[in-house]
Design a protein that fits this description.
alpha+beta, Alpha-Beta Plaits, Multidrug efflux transporter AcrB transmembrane fold, five-stranded antiparallel beta sheet, 12 strands, elongated
């Protein structure tokens, strides 16, 4: 088979694969993921549980009203009148169905008691119960939910009040100011769709700005996962556009400076566009959704993929002269990206697939199509003498000492909170909400298991009996188990038997006798009868529920809870995720030496082991210098710095391979300038990433930029002409 025929077959296959992927994605579109938590979770059962917990509450957000002297209740109602009630829902106490829900609770009131009252009755502390009942009875601001002749101790009022905590239903005074909190929620299908979520939160933001202008002294704060997602995704999209524009301008200026032609920009732009599209298509096929940070990181393709085009044009459009170097450079870079697949983190897997797919696509396009479409493009390379770099023994000694000093000072940080730094106004809003609710900044859950809903409720009650009723929310708080309802009914009957005549002298004797002789109420409240949609947030599945802790219990109490309930499990989102990041970092560090050995073996297969060592050594030293610099600057090393070492090796090996292959060629200066320009475009892209708002990506950008510059300079020193 002739070479040209074989190449034509490959070109047809390239187009067919591209078309197949495009058609598949058109008919199977994938949503963009913006949930920050999804960026760093793995795919094991425990992390899927964390993911489920996150998505369960992904649509809930808070609107906090702050003012001096204003009627915040009236303002919150005005706010509610302006939102789209077909999309945004309020909590159960303000959603218009409260009357139906309250009627349901009223019907089952003979079986309902707050935790604190039930505890007092079990301990026969009747005096305390009577005192609290009298306070409710003679409170001029109280609104009795049941007639006093049916509920003389106002136990039902006490129960309803306990459902929402001490701050529910009115103004909250804190630090000399008045506040009111409005909890809203978006449907899950909107909360998990960036486009729809951003539209709705943008409307809420506009209402907030409008009311703040109309009411002097009013401040409105927004908090919650959808608000963070809105600001993070909006900023990320802006950053993507800025990085693309600046990288493109930088490439245009370099092309004009060295090649003295703008014509080469056409095939370069075409190859980069195809690479970005192919990366997106391949990622869409392999993943259920694509994280927005994958798109942010993929902009580095602009700096990486342009290398292949630059080498093609620098060597007078002769693909044969650069084929070996292009191929080996592509393989080593793709291998470096594929190491991210072992991180077991969804975001990094997506970055690996997106970028590797884009690299392979651009490589194939340059090799297969550039010889056809670039026949009439003949750039003239600038005739600059390529500088050589030498380093004396003193400088080498100082560098070694600095590296050792930096490595000795290296510290590690796996805390998840340091991977995302929200805007200051969101930090302020979250702190304010935590202060108003008396909650912690760190969210904790207790996972409860049971064979059916009733067993779940009973297991929850065995756990929550140790907790203050204001310190948690759970399914059993809203729907007590049938066992607990029977106990409550008996406790109420005992209270009436011992204290009704003494306490309720304001009732006629006949009414007291009626209460004392009332038959046992044998109908019980269940989840289906209450039919309150918000309670689904507490159910992970039919046999697993979650208790949301406003405050984590003291360690001794927590140990007792878990020992008495061995099937229960405590989850602290921040601590658990940080622990998983730490385990992943350890695993990645264990892969460094095997990865280096595999790369060395691959290069030794193509070159002699001695030459392979010359090629790989700049990458190893460049990574070492990077970590040492972090130590010298007092910056802790995290998982993503470790992962960057693999990428530094993959990228910088390209420069070493090209330098080694073309050092003895007829035009080494042209090859040298092509490598330098390739390095400059890549480093520039990563430097731009270093200034992005998401710390996970910015830390990668900074380390990669430093590592690539170091590796390139070391390749000039260590790889020299024979």
């Amino acid at each position: 088979m002739k070479k040209e025929t074989f190449l034509n077959i490959l070109r047809v296959l390239f187009c067919l694969v591209f078309a197949f992927l495009a058609i598949f994605v058109v008919f199977h579109p994938k949503r963009t993921q913006t949930n920050i938590l999804q960026a760093i979770l793995t795919n094991n059962a425990q992390d899927r549980l964390l993911s489920d917990l996150s998505e369960k509450h992904s649509g809930r957000f808070n609107v906090i009203f702050e003012a001096d002297g204003a009627d915040l209740g009236e303002i919150s109602r005005e706010f509610l009148s302006l939102v789209d009630k077909n999309v945004i829902k309020t909590d159960f106490s303000k959603n218009g169905r409260f009357a139906r829900i309250l009627d349901t609770y009223k019907y089952y009131s003979p079986n309902l008691l707050s935790m604190s009252t039930a505890k007092s009755l079990k301990e026969h502390n009747y005096e305390n119960v009577k005192l609290e009942s009298l306070e409710r009875l003679y409170n001029p601001l109280a609104l009795n939910l049941l007639p006093v002749e049916k509920d003389p101790f106002l136990l039902f009022d006490d129960y309803i009040q306990s459902l929402s905590g001490p701050q529910a239903g009115g103004n909250v005074e804190f630090d000399g100011k008045n506040y009111e909190i409005l909890t809203l929620s978006l449907p899950e299908e909107i909360a998990l769709s960036p486009t729809l979520l951003n539209q709705e939160i943008s409307k809420v933001k506009n209402i907030k700005n409008r009311l703040e202008k109309e009411h002097n002294g009013l401040k409105i704060y927004l908090s919650g996962a959808p608000v963070h997602t809105f600001y993070a995704s909006s900023k990320s999209m802006v950053e993507i556009n800025v990085i693309c524009v600046l990288s493109s301008i930088f490439i245009i200026l370099l092309c004009k400076f060295y090649f003295r032609s703008f014509k080469i920009l056409i095939p370069i732009a075409l190859s980069l566009s195809l690479g970005m599209i192919f990366g997106y298509l391949l990622t869409s096929v392999l993943f259920d959704s694509i994280h927005i940070l994958t798109f942010v990181f993929s902009t580095t393709l602009i700096g990486i993929c342009v290398d292949y085009s630059l080498h093609f044009f620098a060597h007078d459009n002769d693909i044969d002269s650069v084929f070996k170097s292009l191929t080996l450079g592509m393989i080593t870079t793709v291998f470096a990206f594929f190491t991210l697949l072992f991180s077991n983190i969804s975001l990094l897997k997506q970055i690996a697939v997106f970028t590797s797919g884009g690299l392979v696509c651009v490589y194939l396009f340059v090799v297969l199509f550039y010889p056809l479409i670039c026949k009439n493009i003949k750039p003239k390379s600038a005739d600059f003498r390529f500088p050589e770099l030498k380093i004396n023994k003193i400088a080498a000694g100082v560098l070694i000492l600095l590296c050792i000093a930096g490595l000795l000072r290296v510290k590690f940080n796996d805390d998840i909170k340091d991977m995302y730094v929200p805007p200051k106004h969101l930090v302020q809003a979250e702190k304010l909400y935590a202060n108003l609710q008396g909650a912690q900044n760190s969210t904790s859950f207790i996972i409860v298991n049971g064979s059916n809903v009733q067993e779940l409720l009973e297991n929850e009650e065995n756990i929550t009996k140790y907790l203050n009723q204001d310190d948690f929310y759970s399914l059993s708080k809203f729907v007590p188990s049938i066992k607990r309802q029977k106990e409550n009914s008996e406790l109420i009957r005992e209270l009436y038997k011992h204290e009704l005549n003494d306490y309720a002298g304001f009732l006629p004797v006949s009414q007291r006798k009626k209460l004392l002789n009332a038959p046992q109420f044998n109908d019980f409240l269940t989840l289906e009868k209450l039919n309150l949609p918000m309670l689904k947030d507490f159910l992970i599945n039919d046999t697993t529920s979650v208790i949301i802790l406003q405050k984590t219990p003291p360690e001794h109490l927590l140990n007792k809870i878990l020992s008495d309930n061995p099937r229960a499990q405590l989850i602290n989102l921040r601590d658990d995720i940080s622990h998983r990041v730490e385990k992943c970092r350890h695993a990645c560090m264990m892969l460094i030496i095997p990865a280096v050995l595999v790369l060395f073996g691959l290069l030794s297969f193509v070159y002699k082991p001695k030459n392979a060592l010359k090629i790989i050594l700049p990458s190893i030293l460049g990574g070492t210098i990077t970590i040492s610099l972090l130590g010298l600057l007092g910056l802790p090393v995290n998982l993503f710095h470790v992962l960057a070492l693999f990428l530094i090796a993959g990228f910088s090996l390209d420069y070493a391979i090209f330098r080694f292959n073309f050092l003895n060629s007829p035009a080494p200066a042209k090859s040298g300038w092509a490598v330098l320009i390739s390095c400059a475009t890549t480093v520039f892209s990563f430097l731009l990433l270093a200034f992005t708002s998401f710390k996970l990506i910015s830390s990668l950008g900074f380390v990669l930029a430093v590592g690539l510059v170091s590796s390139y300079l070391l390749s000039l020193v260590l790889i020299r002409k024979d």
